[in-house]
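Lecture 7, part B: from sequences to assemblies.

Below are the input chains for today's worked example.
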Amino acid sequence: MRRIVTLLSLCLALVSSSCGEKPKKEENTFEIKNEVKKPVAEATAATIPQSENKLGRRVFLLCAACHNVVKGEPHKVGPNLNGFFGKRAGMKEGFVYSEALKNKGIVWSEKTIREWLENPASYVPGTKMAFVGVKKKEQQDALIAYLKEVTKE
Ligand code: HEC
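Predicted structure of the full complex, as structure tokens:
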């Protein structure tokens, strides 16, 4: 009888201790999940301004993984593009550009941005921008109009 009681209390102890552990574990996984979720949610909310120019915005989704456009937002893999029209390439503070882009002496205009979009690596050999390009003229037009609208300072 005493053995049974001991066994029972042992079981109880085991059950209660594992019960005691459970919430801890859940807390931990919750924390981890939260950490992962937060930046993603912030990134998508902040990066892709709405526009009447639906096609332009849709093409910009190709860029949004690497570029913010809203003033004050951080650089991502690529620099924040706010206010880049009319400026010299490779001048955003706090972003480390390739020597290739900095030394090319580009000033961003409709003409230069179109050449860049067409094929970044052939326009600026050695650029860090790993992007195949936007080839269709219709998509380039829409994207350039969208960029002009949403990167205004
Ligand atoms: C995989 C990430 C990635 C994608 C996708 C991408 N870019 Fe970039 N972009 C970069 C990087 C990195 C640089 C810096 C290039 C360098 O230093 O050579 C850059 C530079 C630029 C610049 C020059 C900015 C400056 O300050 O001179 C422009 C403009 C630009 N990207 C536009 C675009 C557009 C528009 C798209 C979408 C069609 C796009 N990028 C897609 C990573 C990306």
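Note for the exam: Confidence is low (pLDDT under 50) at residues 10-45. Keep this in mind when comparing with the next example.
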